[in-house]
Amino acid sequence: MTESTGVLAGYRVLDCSIAMAGPFAAQRLGDLGADVVKVEPTTGEWQRHAAAGGAQGNEINVSFLSLNRNKRSVALDLKSDAGKEALRALVADADVFLQNYRPGVAARLGVDYETLREINPSIVYVSISGYGEDGPYRDRPGQDLLLQAMSGAMLSAGRHGDEPTPAGQYLADAVTASTAFEGVLAALLHRERTGEGQLVTVNMLDALTTLQMQELSVFTVGKKTQERSAEPHAHVYIRAPYGVFATSDGFVALAFADLHELGRLIGEPAFEGWNSEVEGWTRRDEIHAKTAAKLAEKPSGYWIETLGAAGMWIGPVHGYQELVDDPQIVHNGTFIEYDHPTEGHVKTPGFPYRFSKTPPRLVRGAPRVGEHTREVLAQAGFDDAAIDALLASGAAKETTDAPASASAPDPAAPAHAVPRTEPEPEPATVEA
């Protein structure tokens, strides 16, 4: 086992989550040095079998690869008594247990908080759900797009009468993952101070709602209704100009420009004498239309240089290639690169935080199914004979064969080399 030196070194996390929100939160803990043990079914976690955006891997699909670095894999059948007993042995010396099963599934499997706290009273138990542990929506699927639609966020941007537009990211899952990550850290800090473990519950609906702290307060406290404009304004609670505008060769994003100065620089005399905090609200559609007409006449680079030099907030609209190649991204080292034993050379987003003493680092890429089953169980006190018995009974699984040499994925190959032969507990949170 590779010794960790990160800020969370010495903490062990049992990651029983699937899909995106839970695994992403657990990966962040692993990036900071925690020993994250991914407990997955003997056929492999659901995400191993779901191609991301149609992208297929040699053995590990991109979705799983991107959300499960810095983890070890132990494969257990939690529907078997032996598999449950093995998990309980792992719980005994774990610090964090994380799951995102649908409400009620953890109890049926015997891995709910009340059961596990009897084994380890100091455990920090994190349960992630779509809508909450109880209530009228308890059993609804917590899918990203559905949560975005329900949150009200889609009606804070765009054109009146047009279809609401979802975010270009799995926003609800990502925000929930960050919220769970924060919850783990806070609970561990409490435990350091008091010795007490506790239950931490996080749900996607609350995470996405509280993210809109300013917008919803403008509505509930300021009594300003959520009214979209006739022009495609980027946010209903921000004055014009505010949005994305076409240029002669692409797009730029423009925000909060002083109307008088903007009119002078783009050659729009109508803005002369207008007050940004008055007409910026009352003539929002007109401002957008006139600005759009002028910006379309010249290329993006011209406007970024000209308006930016005047102190206006303007920037490029990147696609992914432009983002990856952006000099600031390159300078920051935002992406990390490494060689994976089955997936070849991998370039993927790295770490969103910096630590001067205990920086996050890449210890291992996403594991193969049960790659560390024997290692993890041995650390929990199982001898070779007991581990062999678990493997022979099917209650556990390990991957011991040498991986095929890494190469470029074959587009004609199946999405995963190991077919699913048994159902697993459904997640409470599933990305698009």
TrEMBL record:
Keywords: Transferase. Residues 395-432 are annotated as: Disordered. It comes from the Bacteria. Coiled coil: none annotated. It holds the Pfam family CoA_transf_3. SUPFAM superfamilies: CoA-transferase family III (CaiB/BaiF) (SSF89796). InterPro entries: CoA-transferase_III_domain, CoA-Trfase_fam_III, CoA-Trfase_III_dom3_sf, CoA-Trfase_III_dom_1_sf. Residues 395-420 have a biased composition (Low complexity). One of its GO terms (molecular function) is CoA-transferase activity. The keyword Transferase applies. This is CoA transferase. The lineage of its organism: Bacteria, Bacillati, Actinomycetota, Actinomycetes, Micrococcales.
